[in-house]
Amino acid sequence: MALERTLSIIKPDAVAKNLVGAIYTRFESAGLRIVAAKMMHLSKEQAEGFYAEHKERPFFGALVEFMTSGPIVVQVLEGEDAVLKNREIMGATNPAEALAGTLRADYAETIDENAVHGSDAVESAAREIAYFFSDEEICPRTR
Ligand code: RTP
Ligand code: MG
């Protein structure tokens, strides 16, 4: 087990459905700690930069349009095996394939509007955290 950090986004569909608190409760109940958080409304450039790895994929334009369609809530989650644990809490990319009890099974309608993002590896987590947060904006536990 390793203490890790991962980047999580509550996407525009879930923010619009007023699910921020419900989703935070899932993270906290699983032992993940919120050590940084902010609400943002991404510009096209910010969304394109964040998802640059997907820029050649056929869904890229729709993904950027969706991610800029409304406010999001971005957080850094910290805990034992946080990257994998968050992916388990989220469930499969396609909500139709997500296990019962996962965020995407419970709160997402389609693969295009799937409620949450989570980093897929420790390396991508470090890059994604730095994309949204300066070191000073991350507030580790002190007590
Ligand atoms: P995310 O990055 O948002 O956490 O999702 P993920 O790792 O589960 O999936 P990824 O492959 O990184 O894809 C990023 C987002 O692009 C949309 N997508 N659409 N229509 C499609 O086939 C398709 N595939 C991916 C999803 O919204 C996915 O979350
Ligand atoms: Mg991904």
Textual characterization of the structure:
The protein is α+β, with helices and mostly antiparallel strands and 143 residues long. The protein has a single domain, classed as Nucleoside diphosphate kinase-like domain (Alpha-Beta Plaits, 2-Layer Sandwich), CATH 3.30.70.141. 38% of the residues lie in helices and 20% in strands. It is built from 7 helices and 4 strands. The protein has a 4-stranded antiparallel sheet with strand order 2-3-1-4. The longest helix is centred in the C-terminal third of the chain and has 11 residues. The radius of gyration is 14 Å and the shape is globular. The relative contact order is 0.26. The protein binds ribavirin triphosphate and magnesium ion (MG).
Summarize the structure.
With 143 residues, the chain is of the alpha+beta class.
Features of this protein?
single chain; 143 residues; binds magnesium ion; binds ribavirin triphosphate; Alpha-Beta Plaits; 7 helices; alpha+beta; four-stranded antiparallel sheet
Count of alpha/pi helices = 7
Named CATH architecture: 2-Layer Sandwich
Q: Whole-number average pLDDT?
A: 98
> How many beta strands in the DSSP annotation?
4
Which term fits the overall shape? globular
Question: What structural category arises from helix and sheet content?
Answer: alpha+beta
| CATH top level label | Alpha Beta
Which ions and ligands are bound to the chains?
Answer: ribavirin triphosphate, magnesium ion
| Low-pLDDT stretches | none
Number of domains: 1
CA gyration radius, whole angstroms: 14 Å
Element string (H = helix, E = strand): EHHEHHEHHEH
Cα(first) to Cα(last) distance is: 21 Å
Range of strand content: 15-25%
Q: Which percent range fits the helix content?
A: 25-40%
CATH superfamily: Nucleoside diphosphate kinase-like domain
Strand order of the largest sheet: 2-3-1-4
The biggest sheet, with number of strands, parallel, antiparallel or mixed sense and barrel status, is: 4 strands, antiparallel
Keywords: ATP-binding, Cytoplasm, Kinase, Magnesium, Metal-binding, Nucleotide metabolism, Nucleotide-binding, Phosphoprotein, Transferase
Binding site for ATP: 11, 59, 87, 93, 104, 114
Main location: cytoplasm
GO cellular component, one term: cytoplasm
